[in-house]
Amino acid sequence: MTGTHMTQQDYERLKGAARDTALTDAEAVVLVNREFGFEASKIEILHEAELDATEPGARCVKLEKTPRPPMNASTDWNYIRFNVHCAPAVWYYEMVNAQLYQVCI
């Protein structure tokens, strides 16, 4: 899948449930580390996501960036967009409702 694995509508519902209180980067790193075991020093928390804005019939995929601070309403209702830096590559991920997804951008 290109872009994000959570629709903007679902993210807005999560944001409301989390009372518009984004996680700090440190809180998000701890959550990602605890859930998936990535080395904390290698995790970079992002505050925006790429949404698929491709028009029907288009030949190329068009992505638009939108603000998406990390949110956590409960153990199975959350969203964190992050990168993991492992030499020589960077891996792109999302945590969506306690599930790990690789992001293709």
Overview of the molecule:
The chain is an alpha+beta fold and 105 residues long. The chain has one domain. It is built from 2 helices and 7 strands; from the N terminus they run ααβββββββ. It has helices at residues 8-17, 25-36, and strands at residues 43-46, 48-52, 63-67, 71-74, 77-86, 89-96, 99-102. The strands form 2 sheets. Strands 1, 4, 5, 6 and 7 form a 5-stranded antiparallel beta sheet that branches. It is globular. The mean pLDDT is 91.
Keywords, separated by commas or semicolons:
alpha+beta, five-stranded antiparallel beta sheet, two-stranded antiparallel sheet, 2 helices, 7 strands, globular
Order of helices and strands: HHEEEEEEE
Q: Tell me, briefly, the overall form.
A: globular
Main β-sheet description: 5 strands, antiparallel
Strand count: 7
Helical content (DSSP H or I, runs of 4+): 10-25%
Poorly predicted runs = none
How large is the radius of gyration? 14 Å
Q: Give the number of domains.
A: 1
Q: What is the CA-CA span between the terminal residues?
A: 9 Å
Beta-strand portion reads: 35-45%
Q: What's the mean pLDDT score? A: 91
The helix/strand class is: alpha+beta
Total helical elements: 2
